[in-house]
Specification:
The protein has 123 residues and is an all-alpha fold. The protein has 2 domains: 6-73, 434 Repressor (Amino-terminal Domain); 89-113, no CATH class. The chain is built from 8 helices and no strands. It has helices at 6-17, 22-29, 33-41, 49-58, 67-73, 77-88, 92-105, 108-113. The longest helix is centred in the last third of the chain and has 14 residues, at 92-105. The protein is elongated, with a radius of gyration of 19 Å. The N and C termini lie far apart (53 Å). The relative contact order is 0.10.
Length: 123
């Protein structure tokens, strides 16, 4: 299944307009050419955020222009690991313990955002 992504499509358009090959981009970004082909063909459904940022840096494109969109669209390596670990857990008890651990390891802003409604602070 091929997924179209507006950010990826914009980068593809930039590559075409500036006559930049995947080989050149691979050399500049350090990303294997096969990975680039998968990303730009839509085979890679969810490329990592750091991969997209490396592409933008290699092309001298401003990362901050689409960082907000990328942060909600792509996962960091750490986020992928957390999700995979969670998915590998089999019991509800283990999943609950894992979520509690993750919430306690994050900055206060994360803990507030993902706090369960029944969790309240008592003075």
């Amino acid at each position: 299944m091929i997924i179209e992504n507006p950010e990826i499509e914009a980068i593809k358009k930039y590559l075409k307009e500036h006559k930049i090959s995947y080989l050149t981009l691979s050399e500049k970004s350090g990303i294997p050419i096969g990975s680039l082909r998968n990303i730009f063909s839509g085979i890679s459904k969810n490329p990592r955020l750091d991969t997209i940022q490396a592409i933008l840096r290699a092309l001298d494109l401003p990362e901050q222009r689409i960082d907000a969109t990328l942060a909600t669209t792509y996962l960091t390596l750490e986020e992928e690991e957390i999700i995979e670990t969670f998915r590998s857990l089999t019991s509800e008890r283990d999943k609950t313990l894992f979520l509690l651990f993750v919430r306690n390891m994050q900055p206060a802003s994360f803990a507030k955002k993902y706090k369960k409604p029944d969790e309240t602070h008592r003075a």
